[in-house]
């Protein structure tokens, strides 16, 4: 569709770093308002990996000022798993978009399937369902809408994918000064979308997904160097003036466009943008870059010449123009063509919009006129796109379904202008500032071009437009443009829509005409009074030679007006009375005037010099009759000089004049009759040739239309298959990612089951074996090949014959069950059966686990045995920490007012001894004896001691013995021996203590 421009510069490449672990830290706080920036990422086939890389490299805190939107080609028949998959790559909140949802900074928004997405002027999402059977371009649609709303605060990123979605969108973003990025084709799994976007020349930078993420953060926080631009009223001032002038001079000279006459504010903004992207700190640095980088100069030229357009841009204005067209058509004479000029047509949408309006107006009026729409622009790349007449599906939003069906033909994901509309438009490269304007124009449309010119240049261009328009012609300008001083020469037809009608035709001097590439000797140079002619001596010599050697001649324009005079033509031309004119036919005698018209017509037709018969000039009072011939010849055969004619007056001998006055009078009439006869014969021959060519053309056209129809069907089928393929690839990528997660989860569960060493069996809803752990072989003699067999086909080793039936009840009732089972060899199992579902309520089967509780039961029996003893028992470790106590110990401690806190499990027995009554010798002896037992110095230790309560006297026997084994520790028991101690024994103990 477009010619390839220079590629955007690659970001610095680096070796792919290992995947970093996601480190979120504090969750980013949403700003809960319209974001400062909007970042849209377009991806299709192969885009999942690129998106994960992008968000993995995106710091969530630094990303807070922006809202991120992810647009993909999603299948309408599959649920997207993108929210779950992206959660692993970013801590930013992820939300699936709903219609009317507001944009919020610091969040990631995902497009749902089967819709297109736009941003409204109020900063909300607008979802529209896709049209069935029509290939959609959701990335282009989003990019274009956000460019309209967020202007230069939007960023478009094109990632892996096939096709060309996003191509038109990056042009829209670039035109408003936003940042456009694309994944390098070499790093993309599918390079169709990035390559197509890069080929437009409107992608600012390329890189892999991680590099693009870093570039986005730099743009959000202004980390690129800012040039020193002073905000003076005229754009720039101060030390940067020299650099700015150098840039303008270089740009104007090498592009032949006078950018110094463009509004400085526009030029400065575009220069500033390019400086930022190319990391230039000053205008002087950027001027040096331009001089050594022709590609950068062309990029700057393209960005200054903003090419924003669309079909029927500003609809109400075009509706008003449509109401004026019937009157314009009605005033055209039969056989007279309707001439329209679309100046600054960009990529052709405006010109085709005019053609559609004219086509509709002629159909409504039942007219069939020849229509010539001259669509011009200074950028050849725009004209290449316009000439192709091929536009993406995003134009569906700009055109009504009726116009789309009537004026376009679907070709895959593109629309092509129909031949009937295309034949009306002629595209040509033309500069409204320097090139000669068209003439006899009935309607001139130049919208949103003059706004970029300085006031003086606007005035000059308006004069050119006035000259181009016929008397009563219509001028259609943009909503922000005006006529300036020329307003007195126009009548306002619509003030709101800037539509005007000429009141008087304009006139241009040769200086204002500025015919391109003419020899400078033909130029008229305006000088202030008193200023000397700047011509060099060689110029004066050339002028003298022309006057001496060249016969009297005149240069005529396409409209037969004198543009330049060579030599003295006063003998041949006289100014008529009345209104001034530059038409030589009105400045000659009637007979000579007719001859001039004849030779001009033949020379223009044959594109060759033509000589007239001798013409009498008149009889001077004192001499013979003077005569001359008229020679007419085209200046050149190539544009733009092919329409210029040179008329030369050649003196001849008087003898060549017919002496008979009657013959002289009849000669012009005879000549006219002869020429009319020749003209009639020529017309008949041409008519016959035209008819033959039309018949052949009709046959070829019919064959061509059949081929086009077949091609369109094949293209449509291919595009639909391509679209389905992309959607399936996206779904497949998501499933592959999900499968990897499931494989990892499955491995984790398998390892956990092996580590737990619990026999576990899985069955489906039909109690068919689906999985088992290795330890399950303790219950069943399973082999790997038994998967898929009913569980009832097997007999278990524990004698639980009703297990399959019980599992069936668990599945049926959707409730768990526990069974305690003892085998013949005395092994005890807790058999736990549980149903499991798919997360949506459907029961898929059951799982049964066999937990060996034999040792647990034995421990419980031992515990019961120990708890039934009357002695107070405690088990200590090697440091004297209490590890276990029996019930008697606990009851005794609780009965002694808080002693449980000092002598319970987890406390230190020695600390309890130290905390006893001061100078309690029994406690000290008990501690010493226990340490000896723990150190294996003695085999056991016993001590009788009193422990009286307020109501009675009590005596206890402490006994400590070491635990068997290598772990160390001891068992301490306290036995109440009060009933065994008599009075004598008590006195003996007390005296012994004393």
Automatic annotation (TrEMBL):
Residues 1-22 are annotated as: Disordered. One of its GO terms (molecular function) is protein-glutamate methylesterase activity. Residues 26-223 form the CheB-type methylesterase domain. The active site is at residues 44, 73, 165. It catalyses: L-glutamyl-[protein] + S-adenosyl-L-methionine = [protein]-L-glutamate 5-O-methyl ester + S-adenosyl-L-homocysteine. Keywords: Chemotaxis, Coiled coil, Hydrolase, Methyltransferase, S-adenosyl-L-methionine, Transferase. Residues 672-738 form a coiled coil. GO terms for cellular component: cytoplasm. This is protein-glutamate O-methyltransferase. It comes from Rhodospirillum centenum (strain ATCC 51521 / SW).
